[in-house]
Specification:
D-Amino Acid Oxidase, Chain A, domain 2, 18 strands, 383 residues, 29% helix, eight-stranded mixed beta sheet, FAD/NAD(P)-binding domain
């Protein structure tokens, strides 16, 4: 006989955990998180921890603005320090084309409440000592962007879920799902569960179960890699981004530089480190930060972006299956968006209301051809 629960959350990454946490905070009922491996074993423990509102379209900017507000209060909400520090993101410009792109972005961000401002080249050098000054024009800077420690977030959410009566089942993949009248039947290695609501938060693997319900979403995996250096004394605080040199990099609390460079990557789940990426990163980073020539690389790893045709996430109920909700296609921005996603998904489950901030990201937008083109940053692999 199937065990009866109120909400099944499939996927123990940050979006699944955040949704379960928010549901339990609302006193929703019996909430179970099903994770096929261990909590955070996917992209949620393989990212750089960047949090930013500097996007190119109004819909994502507004959703991310709410996410930053929620991030700033999450340590208090969880009673656990997530190590969130708001030192900003700085997007540096080395050409008239860069200036034009970021000028338009800054206007859109300012119009939607994100107070991005322009820094002249001398100001950029003060914020980022040692940056390559040749051709440097200036930069966009937003002080409320920042970074956090992904493991701290995951641990805080786990403790909150358990403290509030939720259940986390690791090493428990959902192998089959079916619809029966007003409930879903989930088959796992730990038996069957019946649930009123299902949240599929499996990112790039969303279709493995969705297809069993006749659902096919335009989501696919793309490999991404990161580098970490030996720790150095604190040199600069913001997350630094350069489209010209393809670099996104910041200095962690331990003093390591953690960064990525733009590289064409295959559409697969390979998470092994590659020599080609290390060589590419080394060549690119010393063009942007010449002093990095003498810094040792000590770690390298890969993860997966779950991409969509418009580089924007797929969030919410799927068509007529109003109680089957997906969280996927975040295109590299899933962690930073997660507090807002968890908040609005849990609100929908509890009230049946789709918030206006969530509505543009519903799966039905692909059928309606109402895409949310995020071309400013995602196509350049900016973290």
């Amino acid at each position: 006989m199937a065990k009866s629960i109120d909400a099944a959350v499939i996927g123990g990454g940050v979006n699944g955990l955040m949704t379960a946490h928010k549901l339990l905070r609302r006193g929703f009922g019996r909430v179970v998180v099903f994770e096929s491996n261990v909590i955070g074993s996917g992209q949620s423990s393989r990212n750089a921890g960047g949090i930013r509102a500097q996007f190119g379209n109004e819909k994502t900017i507004r959703l991310m603005s709410e996410a930053i507000r929620l991030w700033s209060g999450l340590s208090r909400e969880l009673d656990y320090n997530i190590l969130f520090k708001q030192d900003g993101y700085i997007f540096v410009c080395y050409s008239d084309e860069d200036v034009s792109i970021y000028s338009r972005a800054r206007e859109t961000q300012n119009r939607n409440g994100i107070k991005t401002r322009w820094l002249e080249a001398d100001e950029v050098s003060e914020v980022v000592p040692g940056i390559n000054r040749e051709g440097l024009v200036g930069a966009n800077f937003h002080s409320l962007d920042g970074t956090l420690h992904h493991d701290a977030v995951l641990h805080g959410l786990m403790f909150s879920i358990e403290r509030n009566g939720g259940l986390i089942l690791e090493h428990t993949p959902v192998v089959r799902i079916s619809k029966r009248e007003d409930e879903f039947i989930l088959s796992t290695l730990n038996g069957e569960f019946s649930s009123q609501y299902v949240v599929n938060a499996t990112a790039s693997k969303v279709n493995e179960l969705s297809s069993q319900l006749g659902i096919k979403l335009p989501v696919w995996p793309v490999r991404r890699e990161l580098i970490a250096t030996e720790p150095l004394k604190s040199l600069f605080k913001p997350m630094l981004v350069s489209l010209k040199y393809g670099i996104t990099i910041h200095q962690s609390l331990r003093g390591e530089f953690v960064g990525h460079t733009h590289a064409e990557e295959p559409q697969n789940y390979d998470i092994s480190a590659s020599l080609n990426f290390m060589i590419r990163f080394a060549k690119d980073i010393i063009k942007l930060l010449p002093f990095m020539k003498y810094v040792k690389i000590v770690r390298q790893w890969a993860g997966t972006y779950d991409m969509t045709p418009d580089s924007s996430p797929v969030l919410g109920p799927v068509g007529e299956l109003a109680k089957y909700i997906v969280i996927a296609g975040s295109s590299g921005h899933g962690f930073m968006l997660s507090p807002a996603v968890g908040h609005y998904i849990s609100e929908y489950i509890a009230t049946g209301r789709v918030d206006e901030l969530l509505r543009p990201f519903l799966p039905e937008r692909f059928e309606r051809n109402e895409l949310i083109e995020e071309t400013l940053l995602s196509n350049s692999s900016v973290l």
